[in-house]
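User: I've been trying to design a sequence by hand for this structure and keep getting stuck. Would you show me what you'd pick, starting by listing the structure so we're on the same page?

Assistant: Good idea, let's start from the same input. This is the structure you sent:
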């Protein structure tokens, strides 16, 4: 049996916290920033970073696959972004770029994104400390061979000044149907910005919330240690999750929401065609129903996996070919029908 990917699991506080991400931005001291580099300069960085990891004596080196982006199909590249292995911006121009990915896809190293390296660690549920420790271990391993650009006053040097200092961005993917359904998101986002945090859509800056998924992340990297940033994010996330649970409890007492959740389970078990946006909406409702004990027959980790697997490029990557929209809608419905066949209202 194949090993589960990180996004097919449920972790701590998984009713609200879908996943944790810690990302470190690093640059090589004597190399031109990717935005100014030509193709040969980018390829030299790819070669140097790959060798630093794959030729090390660490057990980590045996866990990674090397994927040159220029050799991937458009569907395979887009699927990497849908699975949060890489950023959407990373695949816009694939030449001179590569990514190193662990077997369960929980760790990736993007080469020549905005910075020379973006070390990214993903974990299911709320696991900021664990993700940060893994990222630090990989950073230390690479730093034994690579000469990172560092200044004693400004910390790690990055292409964008907003990443100076630790170069770390920590974020949580949160499922917030309660706050969203109550119309509280604008207020919450405004309050968070005053605390140095930002709340965005599921795919980061400029993206919309899909299936009531929101990304909560730190904005400040200069003047704070990694531990301080993690502790700050964790404390505020705890408050936000508590507020979300209070709204959910009240919301799920309403007959209208109970009906929507039960109907969503029925739709997923019977639909013959389903668009990506409808799948996200129905899976969000089912996830809420499972978390609140209103539905049974499916695990939250399985719903997390379906949210990724039903994405358009990921569907096509699994088939190994392009598909027209209607065929994707048919294949998506088949996938969801098979996975949700045991889904049902919980016994009173």
């Amino acid at each position: 049996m194949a090993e589960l990917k990180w996004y097919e699991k449920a972790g701590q506080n998984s009713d609200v916290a879908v996943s944790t991400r810690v990302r470190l931005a690093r640059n090589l001291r004597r190399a031109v920033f990717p935005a100014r580099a030509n193709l040969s300069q980018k390829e030299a960085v790819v070669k140097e970073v790959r060798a630093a990891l794959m030729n090390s004596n660490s057990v980590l080196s045996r866990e990674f696959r090397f994927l040159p982006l220029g050799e991937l199909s458009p569907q395979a590249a887009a699927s990497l972004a849908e699975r949060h292995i890489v950023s959407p911006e990373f695949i816009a121009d694939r030449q001179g770029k590569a990514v190193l990915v662990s077997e369960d896809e929980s760790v990736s190293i993007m080469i020549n994104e905005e910075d020379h390296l973006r070390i990214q660690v993903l974990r299911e549920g709320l696991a900021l400390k664990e993700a940060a420790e893994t990222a630090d271990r990989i950073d230390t391993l690479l730093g034994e061979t690579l000469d990172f650009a560092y200044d004693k006053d400004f910390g790690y040097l990055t292409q964008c000044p907003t990443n100076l200092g630790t170069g770390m961005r920590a974020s949580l993917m949160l499922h917030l149907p309660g706050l969203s359904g109550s119309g509280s998101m604008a207020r919450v986002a405004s309050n968070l910005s005053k605390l140095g945090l930002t709340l965005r859509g599921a795919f980061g800056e400029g993206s919309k919330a899909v299936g009531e998924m929101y990304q909560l992340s730190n904005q400040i990297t200069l003047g704070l240690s990694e531990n301080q940033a993690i502790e700050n994010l964790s404390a505020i996330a705890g408050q936000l999750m508590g507020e979300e649970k209070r709204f959910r409890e009240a919301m799920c007492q309403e007959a209208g929401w109970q009906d929507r959740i039960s109907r969503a389970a029925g739709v997923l078990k019977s639909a013959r065609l389903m668009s990506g946006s409808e799948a996200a909406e129905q899976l969000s409702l089912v996830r809420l129903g499972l978390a609140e004990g209103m539905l049974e027959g499916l695990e939250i980790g399985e719903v997390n996996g379906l949210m990724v697997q039903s994405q358009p490029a990921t569907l096509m990557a699994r088939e190994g070919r392009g598909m027209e929209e209607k065929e994707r809608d048919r294949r998506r419905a088949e996938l969801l029908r098979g996975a949700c066949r045991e889904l049902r209202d919980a016994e009173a």
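That's my pick for every position. To get oriented when you compare it with your attempt: The radius of gyration is 21 Å. The mean pLDDT is 91.
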